[in-house]
Amino acid sequence: MSKTVAEIMTVNPTTVSPETSLEEAIQILAEKEISGLPVVNEEGELVGIISETDLTWQATGVETPPYVMFLDSVIYLQNPAKHNQEVHKALGQTVSEAMSDRPTTVKGNQLVREAAKIMHDKKLRRLPVVDDNSKLIGMITQGDVIKMMAAE
Question: Which of 39, 107, 122, 124 is the most buried (most CB within 10 A)?
């Protein structure tokens, strides 16, 4: 596992913009049989990632946060701001409304071993690869790591 991320990553991965409709993102994921898409702005900078997990909010909806009534007042047992974020994600129509922003990334010169550890520790299936200016240059997936291990 002494190879670098750049040696095994997928270059020029399929991307979407924040303005892409969720319907279109779902179609891309299904047609390409992939589980996530990097989201880039007009400058090619990574601004988020949209995954199957993000999109399942569309199907599951959102439950009301637990609360208790006390003297005609509602006391939430969870942060209501988190509930508002979940509602926004469930009702969103564009990628920017459902994506995970600030995704974990790696650089091309990092060792695959480091990327694999990050994916394992954070339970991620994929990592965007960026340059020093946060521009997307590739993607590395668990599958890429497994293929490299099989080839060694």
Answer: 39
- Domain ranges in the chain are 5-151
Task: Calculate the alpha carbon distances from 57 to 52, 87, 97 in Å.
Answer: 9, 9, 11
Amino acid in the structure at residue 140: I
Q: Are 5 and 113 in contact (CB under 8 A)?
A: no
Q: Would the CA dihedral through 85, 93, 133, 118 be positive or negative? A: positive
- Cα–Cα separations (whole angstroms), residue 82 to 35, 61, 62, 69, 111: 25, 14, 11, 20, 36
* Tokens describing residue 31: 């047609």
Q: From first to last of its 152 residues, what are the pLDDT tens digits of the chain?
A: 689 999 999 999 999 999 998 889 888 988 988 889 999 999 999 999 998 887 775 555 545 555 556 666 655 555 655 645 554 444 568 899 888 888 999 999 999 999 999 999 999 999 999 999 999 999 999 999 999 999 88
pTM metric for this prediction: 0.75
Structure token pair of residue 145? 């790591």
